[in-house]
Amino acid sequence: MAGVAVVGSGNYELFIDTGFVQDAFLLDENPQGVLNNTQYVLDGTTNFAGVLEGCVGVNVRRGRRDQGDQFGTGTMTFTLSDTSGIFNPFDELSPYFDAATAQPGLAPMRKVELVRYDDLNNAEYLFKGYIVNYDYNFALGGIDTVTVFCADDFYLLSQTVLDEFNVSEELTSARLTTVLDLPEVNFPIAQRAITTGTQTLGGAAAFIISQGTNVLNYCTNINDAEQGRLFMSRDGLLTFQPRVGSTLSGSVADFHDDGTAIVFNQLGISFEADQVVNRAVVQILGSNNPQTADDAASQAKYFIQTQSITNSLLHNDTAAATLASYLLEGEPEPRYTSVGTALNMLTTAQRDTVAIIDIGDTITIEKTFTSGAGTTELAQELSVEGVEHTLNIGDGHKILLFTSPTTIVYELILNDAIYGILDADNVLG
User: Do 12 and 122 belong together in one domain?
Assistant: First the structure.
């Protein structure tokens, strides 16, 4: 098996871009200079160093904790023990120091990857991104350490601004593609997983994108109009899921406390006023006519609980009114908000399943509750909104999933086995 063994969890590796290339084409060299050689390519390939063996711990956080939060930049933090000084950026004798450029190879904005190998030795990514910062700590009389802070591609988008340009009336997914294709952004097509959106964005003069607009903020505004999900996946794909996306897939993992399914050791339950939205206000760009939706019955019980969206990119007031109605949630309901497990509690097959659960996946959580009235079981089907990995070679791999209720949209979807049947539940529009 490839990688480093993590107790009770499987084999893993943490790869860092060293700044060197390998397998580069070299003119007049044999075999490096042979035409049509599949191994030696013009620019070479990135040389990655595996550093997990010297790692004290790894923490990955991606997504959001709650459905009402924004998706932010995914992060990974890890700490390395440096017994020989090879991670010291001042050490010119380090194998990662580039003598040709007199620069450390392990430097900010180098690529980084966390990989787990499943039972068939397939590499499954848990995080892909870039090193943002090395924080080296000298320990007098002890072992030096370096803490490395990493971020996914959302960090790059947050550091980029747009030139002024006009836009056309188009779906959310098309607008997102338009932005990513711009020269100042130039996000790789191979790193996109964009599903067709359901909402139309405006293309009038009011919607012109002004000079200096932050790319990530604008992409977030696109998603606000859609009310879908926009995030970087575990394998480094910029992923856009529309409003109906979470209704179209079954549960990928079942968590249960009775030993019949994946066991858990942590469960969050929420029942709160913040779940209630009984007044929603949506105002589109260039409009002085905010669209308001009210749930009077809910307001009588829970007072007024308001959610507002201003400067929406939706194309007209009618769409804004529809979104306002969609945002209403009149009654709070107790729900599971998070579930945690440790891979050393699971079977090999369960480990392979749980390790790769990602944002947007549907899971099932079921717990047995005992009271004076007897025993009841409560199961909920939920959407994953956020993922946290905590990894230690000697202590194992722990996973915490943050969840929200699955979104139910009663809309006819042609050629779908479930949602393509025209009946009382699945209606046109």
Answer: yes
- pLDDT tens digits for 371-400? 877 888 899 999 999 999 999 999 999 999
Cα separation, 155 vs 109, in Å, equals 10
- Residues 173 and 201: their CA atoms lie apart, in Å, by 10
Task: Quote the number of domains for the chain.
Answer: 4
The least confident of 23-37, 157-171, 176-190, 356-370 is 23-37
Domain that holds residue 24: 4-152
**Which positions ≥6 away from 243 have C-beta within 8 Å?**
198, 199, 226, 227, 228, 326, 407, 409
Query: What are the beta bridge partners of residue 294?
Result: 279
Residue 418 lies in a domain: no
Burial 131-155 (b: 16+ CB within 10 A, else e): bbebebeeeeeeebbbebebbbbbb
Query: Where is 341: in which H helix or E strand?
Result: strand 335-342
Rounded to two decimals, the pTM is: 0.89
Rounded CA gap, 361 and 346, in Å?
Answer: 20
Instruction: Report the candidate in 331, 350, 334 with the shortest Cα–Cα distance to residue 342.
Output: 350
